[in-house]
Amino acid sequence: MSKKVFKEIKDLVTEARNPATFDIDSKSTQQILKLINAEDKKVAGAVAEVIPQIAKAVELVVRCFKLGGRLFYIGAGTSGRLGILDAAECPPTFGTPQKMIKGIIAGGRRSLVRSKEGAEDNSAAGIKDLRKAGLNKNDIVVGIAASRRTPYVLAGLKYAKGIRAKTIFIFCNPVKRLKIKPDVIISPLLGPEVITGSTRMKAGTAQKLILNMLTTTAMIKTGKVYQNLMVDLQARSQKLSERSKRIIMEVTGVGYREAEKYLQLSDGKVKTALVMILSMVSSVEAEKRLKKAGGFVRKAVAEGFSLPEK
Fold first, then answer.
1. Are residues 72 and 186 in the same domain?
2. pTM (2 decimals)?
3. What is the pLDDT of residues 237-280, one digit of tens each?
4. Residue numbers annotated as active site
């Protein structure tokens, strides 16, 4: 088995040595930092090259949400942690239900804070974890694996395809010798890592950028953003409560006290408060308009009303 894995990884870009950093151990602190920074600068450009694939993935995610489906990230190590991080940040930012976007990591929740490297080799667990989550054909699974070969992730994606759920695979190597056929492949080519095989670095940064793009764009396309403001945020802290008021003031031009009043009248829902003010309607009418408009503030405001541009 070990020889098989050796052959699998020997030609991976993420396992190659970076000629620019061969002597990094002999450099000064600032020289090391500059080398790392120079490699990091390549990441955004590589991600830009795969925007067409990310766009396809976003459309699949939006379609999934419209069908009442859920988004599952599945990964091991850094990849798994990044998936869980992105999923955890969506409810407070966009007001999504807790179960709408979920992250699953090889080895379970303990792997978030303590590395459990062998867990990535457990194919059966990849299937078991998705079954336990109740994956169905309306859901979508995003596999994240820098190397493209992680058994836990591949098994999860194969299982998802088997029950007709949509699949997206994010990895940082050339597309070849894949054991599965996901609906969308996103594979930015970043070159070797600064420290050979340390995919928490450029690969992890690229994955984080792509996950940001995936969920943020999907949220925009499902009415969670008005102009460039997060109008579906959940005001569960003092900071978020004050941010909610600021958003209302920014969009409508009302003062602080007025914003506070409408936030109370709308039961803390920024979108409802905005429609109330912009359309001069009650909270009940604002809710009806938002429902009819699919949650989009622009569509919910009164016809013919001139919206302020920012």
1. yes
2. 0.91
3. 899 899 999 999 999 999 999 999 999 999 999 999 999 999 99
4. 89, 120
And the tokens for 300?
């919910």
Q: Do residues 71 and 100 lie in contact, with contact meaning Cβ atoms separated by under 8 Å?
A: yes
Give the Cα-Cα-Cα angle 95, 237, 246 (nearest 5 degrees).
75
Give residue-wise pLDDT tens across range 165-213.
999 999 999 998 788 999 999 999 999 999 999 999 999 999 999 999 9
Token pair 């929740």 is found at 109
Intra-chain end-to-end CA distance of the chain, in Å: 59
Within a 10 A sphere around the Cβ of 81, how many other Cβ atoms? 21
Half-sphere exposure of 148 (CA within 13 A, CB side): 25
Where b means 16+ CB within 10 Å and e means fewer, 276-300 reads bbbbebebeebbebbeebebbbeeb
Q: Which domain holds residue 279?
A: 225-300
The DSSP result for 114-153, as a single string, is S--GGGGG-HHHHHHHHHHTT--TT-EEEEE-TTS--HHH
Looking at 221, 237, 263, the residue that finishes a domain is 221
Quick one: pLDDT at residue 225? 96
> Tokens at residue 174, please?
């050339």
